[in-house]
Amino acid sequence: MVPVYHFLWLGAFLFCAGLMVIITKRNAIMVLLGIELMLNASNLNLVAFNQLHPAHLSGQMFALFVIIVAVCEAAVGLAIVLRVYQHYQTSVPDEVTDLKD
Amino acid sequence: MNFVTILFYFFEAVAALAALSLVLVRNVFYGALILVVCLLSLAAIYVLAFAEFVAVTQILIYAGGILVVIIFGVMLTAKIAGKPLVVKHTNVWGGTLACVALFTLLLYFLSSQKFFEDGKDKMQAADTAINTIGFGLMTEFVLPFEVAGILLLAALIGAAVIASSIKSRNV
Amino acid sequence: MPETQTHYTTFFEVCLLLVVLLPLVSFVVSGRIPQRYSWVVTFTAPLFLLISAIGAIYIFTAVWHHQPYIARVNWFTIGGTLVSAGVYLNDIAALMLLVVTFISFLVHLYSTGYMAGDAGLTRYFAMLGFFTFSMLGIVLADSLLLMFVFWELVGFSSYMLIGHWTEKDEAAAAAKKAFLLNRIGDAGFLVGLMLIWAYTGTFDIVQLSDINEVFSWQTAASLCLFAGVIGKSAQFPLLTWLPDAMEGPTPVSALIHAATMVAAGVFLLARVYFLFTPAALDVIAGIGILTALMAALSALVQFDIKKILAYSTISQLGLMVAAIGAGAPAAAILHLFTHAFFKAGLFLGAGIIIHVLHQAQQQAHEHFNVQDIRNLGGLRKKLPFTFCAFVICGCALAGIPFFSGFLSKDAILTAITHWKGDGFSWKWIVLASAFIVSFLTVIYTFRMIWTVFMGEEKRTASLPVVEPPVIMRGPVAILAVCSVWLLVDINPVNFEGWLFNTLHADGNFHIGIISIVSALWVILAVSVAYFMFRSKTIHDDLLLNNFYLDKLYFKIVENPSWRLAVFTDYFDRRWIDGFIHASAYAQVTVSHLVGWFDRAIVDGTVNGIASLSRGVGNFTRSFQGGKIQSYILWAILAIIIFLIWILF
After folding, report:
1. Where is the chain membrane-spanning (chain A) (predicted)?
2. What is the dihedral angle through the alpha carbons of C544, C545, C547, C553, rounded to the nearest 10 degrees?
3. Among B106, C100, C572, C637, which residue's CB has the most CB atoms within a 10 Å radius?
4. Looking at the domain assignment, is residue A95 inside a domain?
C-alpha cells in the first residue's frame, strides 16, 4: 500500500505550485486556476488524513464540501473577472487600482 | 511494489509535472488544459486512496463544470480573437523564494511530525464507503449539506447577476 | 475794582473788540482775495484800519486819565494753576493803541500808492493787518505769557515783511538775520518768564505790580526780560539786524522798524517797570546810552538814506531805554510817542523819494542806486512838498525847538539829570553821552537833508521827477503836522503837557536850564553841521560798518559755530553714521545668520521630519500599491517568518 506521507508531500507541492501561480501570473483567470490548484491540494490532504479514522469518513466529507465551496468560488470569481474585464478592459489584477490611496 | 503502487506514483508524477508546468506556462488556455490534466490525475489518486465518491465528484465538477466555465472565461476575456492570450509574470523572484521556503518548511514539518501510528501509515480501504457517506450526508452532515445547497444557489444567482451584461447598472 | 467796570460801557467793549479784530479781519480778507482782484485789497485794508483807528481814538479818550480797563477770560489750566488771558488797558496801553492803529492806518493808506502793481500785494496787506493785530495784542495783553505769544507773532510778521520781496537775496538774508537775532533775545525773555513764574507764580501784570517785596533773582529775571527788549528794540549786542531790515518795503520800515514794533521793547519796559531793580536799571541805562552813541556815530557816515534812518532809530531807541534806566518811563514813552510820528514821517518821506525816483528811472531808462545819497542832491526844486515835510520831521528828530522832538528829548535829558540825585556818579557820563548823542543827531540829520535836497542836482538832474499822488502825500503831511510842539503841549518849551503829567504823577519835574542848554546846544550843532557838511562828506569805514559788529559777530559767533557745525557734521558723518552703519551691517549679518539658521536648521528640521515621514509613508504605501499579488506575497513571507519563529 502507498504510504500516507506521499499524499501529503504531493499536497504540499501542489499547494506551493498553486501559490506560485497566484503570485506570479499577471492574469486573473490564471490566478483563479492557482486557487483551484491550492484547493485541490488541501482536498488531497483531507482525503489523506481521512486515514486517521478510516471508518468515519469525515475527511472525505470535508473534501466534498470543499469542492462545493470551490465551485461557488469559481463561479462567482469568474463572474467578477468578466465584469472587471467589461469595466476596465483588462484582466490584469494589478491594473485594477481604484481603491489605491 | 505492485501495480497499484506504480499507478499511484505515475499519477503522482503526472500531477506534480502538471502543476509545475502550470507555473511555467504563459498561455492561459494551455494553463486551463494543464489544470484539467492535473485534476484528473488527482481524481485517479483519490481512487487509489479509496475515496471513490470524492474522485467521481472531482471529475464531474472540476473537469465537467469548472473547467468549462474557465475556458469560457478565457474566451470572453481575450482581447483579440484568434490570438493566444499570453500572460506576463510578476514577482518572480519573490514568489519563488516564498514558495520554495514554504515548501521546504512543509517538508520539514511533515518529516519531523509523526501523524500516524506505526502500521497505520498506509492507505487502508474502508468498507461501504459510499453507504457511509450517503448516511452521513442525510444524518450527521445534513445541516452542512443543506447550507451547501443554499450556498450553491446563492453563488449561481450571484454569478449570473454579476456577469450579466446590463450596462446601465454599471456595477 | 468795581468802579472800573461800571465806568466802561458795552459800547466801549464792542469798540475795543473792533479795534483789535478789524486788523485780523483785514488779514483774513486780504489773504482770501484772489490774485486777480488784488486791487480790492487797496480799498478794504485801509478802510478796516480807518475804522480801527477811529475806534482807537474813542477808546483813548475813554481810558485816558481814568481807571484801567481790565477784562480777562480763563485761558487754560495747567496742573492746578489757572492761566488767564485778558486785556489790561491802562494809560500807556491806550496811548500805544492809538499810535499803532493811527500810524498803521496811515501806512496802509500810503502803501496803496507805494506798493501799487506789486505782485505780492495781497500778501503784503495781509501781513500788515496781521502785524497790526499782533502789535495790538502786545499792547493790550494783561499777562506776560500772552504778551510773549504776540511778541513772537510780531517777530514773525516782521520776518515776512522784511522778506516781502522774496526774489531779493539780501531781503531773504535780512529777514533771516532779523528773525534769528530776535530769537536770541526772545530766549532771554522766555527764561525771564520762567524765573518770574518760579518766584511769583503768576504772569498777570496787575498781580505782579501788587507784589511789593523784592523776590530773589528779581534782577536776573528783569534782565532776562530786558534781553527780549534788546532783541526787539535792537539794543547794543543785537542791533545789527535793524539796518539790514531796511531791505523790506519802505512803509514797512516806517511802521514796524521805526514807529511800533521796535518801540514795543520800550513799551514792555515801561509796562513792567515796577519789576526792575535798581541794579537792573543801571544796566539798562548803560546799554541804552551805549547803543544810542554807537548808532548815532554810525548814522553819521552812512550813504544809504534808509540806513541813516535806521541807525537814527536805533539811536533814539537807545535814548528811550536809557531814560527808562534813569527811572523815567514817562519821558521814554513821551519820546516814543513823538518819535513814532516824526520817524514814520521821515521814512515815508524817504519812501516818496525812492518811489518817485524809481518811476522816473523807469521812464528815462536810467539806473542807479536811488537810496545812495551820494547820487542825490537838489531835490527841493522838484519835490517841494516832500522837502517841506522832510525838513519838519527832520527838525523834530534833531530836536530843534518848536518841534515835538525837542520837548521829548528835553524830558529824557531832564530825567537823566534827576537820576541818582545831585551827587557825583557815573550818571554824568550818561548825561554827557546823551548830550553828545543829541549833538550827533543834529549833525546826521542835517547831513542827510542837506545832501538830498540842497546843493546841485547830481544824477537826478535829467530825470523827470514829479511829486507822488496825494494818497502818498497825505500821510506824510499828517505825520509832519504831528511833529510840531503842539502835539505835546501848547507851551513850546515845556514838555510837561497832557501826556507827561498823566504818566508821571510827581509834579515839578521840569528844569528850565536844561531846555535852554539843550536849545543852545542844538543851535551850535546846526552851525557846526552847516560848516562841516555844506560841501563835503566824511567817510569812515569803522563807523560805516557800525564798528564792525557784524564782522565781530562773524568772527566770534558765526565762525566758531560754523567750525563747530563742520566738526559736528564730520563727527556725525564719521562716527555716528559710522556707528549706525556698523550696527546696521552687524544687524544685517546677524539677520543673515539667523536667516540661514532658520532656513537650514529650523526649517531643515521641520522639512526633514516632513520628508522623513513622507519617505516612510511612500515606503509603506509601496506595500499597498493596489497590487493584490504583492499583498499575497508579503502575506506569505510574513507567514513564513511567523512559522520559523514558532517552530524554531
Report:
1. 6-23, 30-49, 61-82
2. 170
3. C100
4. no
